[in-house]
Design goal:
246 residues, alpha/beta, two-stranded parallel ribbon
């Protein structure tokens, strides 16, 4: 069994979906969990489900000061920071490039890309103090492929993959591993907004003929966060049911 005993982990966007599944997987593996989300109710619920060694801290992924406050709260409560899963994100505006609003572009970049940069900028100094750590950034299959009408999302997720590789090169010698997970379509509240016929057609794009569940993505994140992946850094791992094999 994977163990994260005596380690403290932050999960952003932990109120639902992949973020909640990761937070609960970390808790089951014995970690102290700091769950963050912009939604107080869902974030508190995740922390409650994670157990007595869990804490909820409200944080906006697009706000650099919130990330600093989140990391301080983790260290003040549990003494150190060892693991982070930077998961918070949005789907963003759906429009062709020439029709995308400037506001729509900026919003998805602020949350999905700048939010990961702000997170690592706050997390890495504390991991250095702890003697090392592991960061898993949640990218997407669209960190390795294009998609019509999703320029902001695709650009942000490609950026997350590049940012991950850069941080891995910079901090590997200091004991910090940085990897990216690339989920395909996953059964989360974001996907549930799609009409049923669209969900069916999306499922058919996967070699396994179905979409993922959040726990399947969390299993990869848990492995990457643990000592079982001690020689893994700077990598992008699709968890996509064969979507990118086409």
């Amino acid at each position: 069994m994977t163990t994260l005993a005596n380690r403290t982990a932050i999960v952003t966007g932990a109120g639902s979906g992949i973020g909640r599944a990761v937070a609960l997987a970390y808790a089951r593996a014995g970690a102290n969990v700091v769950a963050s989300d912009i939604d107080d109710r869902s974030g508190i619920e995740t922390a409650s489900l994670a157990g007595s060694n869990a804490l909820f801290v409200r944080a906006d992924a697009a706000n650099a000061d919130d990330h600093e406050r989140l990391v301080r709260a983790a260290v003040e409560r549990f003494g150190a920071l060892h693991i982070a899963c930077n998961n918070a994100g949005i789907g963003g505006e759906v429009n062709p490039v020439a029709e995308m609003t400037l506001e729509g572009w900026q919003r998805v970049i602020d949350i999905n890309l700048s939010g990961v940069f702000y997170a690592m900028r706050a997390q890495i100094p504390r991991m250095l103090e702890a003697g090392g750590g592991s960061i898993v950034n949640i990218a997407s299959i669209y960190g390795a492929a294009g998609a019509k009408n999703a320029a902001g999302y695709v650009a942000a997720k490609h950026g997350v993959v590049g940012l991950t590789k850069t941080a891995a090169l910079e901090y590997g010698a200091h004991g910090i591993r940085v990897n990216a997970a690339g989920p395909s379509y996953t059964d989360t509240p974001m996907l549930n907004r799609l009409p049923e016929e669209r969900r069916t057609s999306v499922a058919a794009l996967h070699a396994l003929g179905r979409i993922a569940n959040a726990e399947e993505v969390a299993a990869l994140v848990l492995w990457l966060s643990s000592d079982a992946a001690a020689f893994v850094t700077g990598s992008f791992y699709p968890v996509d049911g064969g979507y990118l094999a086409r």
